[in-house]
Design brief:
Number of strands: 8
Largest sheet: 4 strands, mixed
Distance between the termini: 30 Å
Radius of gyration: 15 Å
Strand order of the largest sheet: 1-4-3-2
Number of helices: 2
Length: 118
């Protein structure tokens, strides 16, 4: 049996903050949204390139404070692009040792964007 793509589910608590962070800051786009009813919690798929994430307001789907690693073409360039946005809640640094930039979303989830060293 061959395994395929992994799609992490990250817990969110505030739709507006999630959209600001993932769409405005990290340049993800919404692929689809689901709610059982208009007043129920949000579950949505977002993507940027080949990276797909699920964000969930449902308390039973996952725990806040998760960490994921996402491979990118150039982590240093990504860090510079993120700093240029002057997002008031994050000024991500760069780790030369791990060749990565790490950001923490408003809900305590950490995303490590890395580039494999040749």
């Amino acid at each position: 049996m061959k395994m395929k793509r992994t799609v992490p589910i990250l817990r969110i608590f505030d739709e507006e903050k999630a959209r600001e962070f993932y769409f405005d800051f990290l340049d993800f786009k919404c692929d689809w949204e689901h709610r059982y009813e208009p007043t129920m919690p949000l579950y949505m798929q977002i993507s940027n390139g080949d990276c797909i994430l699920h964000l969930s307001e449902h308390h039973g789907d996952c725990s806040p404070g998760s960490a994921i690693r996402v491979e990118v073409e150039d982590a240093k360039e990504l860090q510079e692009q993120l700093l240029a946005k002057a997002y008031k809640f994050a000024r991500p640094g760069f780790s030369d040792e791990w060749n990565e930039v790490c950001v923490t979303d408003p809900f305590g989830n950490r995303i490590h964007f890395y580039t494999t060293k040749e």
